[in-house]
Amino acid sequence: MGPGAARPVTAVAPPDPVAEWGDTANPLTTDRLVVRVMRPHDIPTFAAYRNDPDVARHQLWDLPYTDDDAHGDLDDQADRSDVVAGRWTQLAIEHDGEVIGDVALHLDATGKVAEIGFTLAREHWGHGYATEAAGAVLADLVDRVGVIRVIGELDPPNTASARVLERIGLRHEVTTKKSFFWRGEWTDNTTYSTTAEDWCEWRRLQATPVDEVELVEITSENQEAYAGLAAHEGQRRLVAPMLGNYGDALFPPEEQCVPLVPVLRGIAADTEPAGFLMYAAANETVPEPYLWRLLVDAKHQGRGIGRMALDLLATALASEGHRVLMVSFVDDRGGPKEFYLRSGFELTGTMNGDEVEARRRLK
């Protein structure tokens, strides 16, 4: 689990400690974790989880991964108290005193561009530890070390790690075709990135409560602003792009030979375009309103905007006399099932093609 391991870097002059930028922040502490420089006594644990085929699936190292391999990766930092320019540093992730994984961090020769990766022991997947640890490291890089750019590289099928990078404020930058030679073949490579300025703005938004969410009519005056909204790259296999939404509204599909009637609404958060929804109005073939599309822009996710927009829609539909709002979605890893269940929907037990159907009862 985690972005692809360290890419080869060009040799540079002997590095100076990062301590020149300020006092060491290690260990970093979060609500549940301690993140610190790995030491030789961590080698048995480090080697054990790296030798797990499930852990290594999307990583660069070959199996078996032995204690000798771990020495080769960690001996260079045995006396290091902090990250250094021009080198990789492995940072241990501790939970309740146990090493459960690591954050790999590289600073370029200038100390201004960083690359991060992360790995967790398989038994600790799915608890948010990678997000918590990598987020703390990223904040330290921006706030203390003073980096201007951070990247994360990964194997494109590694969607779990892509979601972690998105959750800590990085955005998909590029996927290059056949650009990396890995395990005997040329493979694709995905890069996520952020600048310090963009990340600080993202952090500000995450820390700023939303005072007001509105559902606004899409008009010729605002359609372009809403057309620019986009979900995270990792969500695009499940969330239609805005161009597709507008296209479906212009040329709606039919239900029992009767075209659906699309109703488009922009989602404004404190007057700023932040999302979009479209529902099919009830007609002779669609007895209850059907939530057709819902998108919250990547930079506004995690602020409760989608839930508030659904509450507004439910209130409006109830005032028109409707009793139920229907939705269907792909029940896949990284999909919206938990979001809808938290937003008052319940599964009906019915499949709509390859999608799971759910309903929200309206008051």
TrEMBL record:
Highest taxon of the lineage: Bacteria
Domain N-acetyltransferase: residue ranges: 33-197, 205-363
Protein's UniProt name: GCN5-related N-acetyltransferase (Modular protein)
Keywords: Transferase
Stored InterPro entries: Acyl_CoA_acyltransferase, GNAT_dom, N-acetyltransferase
PROSITE patterns: GNAT
Keyword Transferase included in the entry's annotation: yes
GO MF annotations in UniProt: acyltransferase activity, transferring groups other than amino-acyl groups
Organism of derivation: Phycicoccus elongatus Lp2
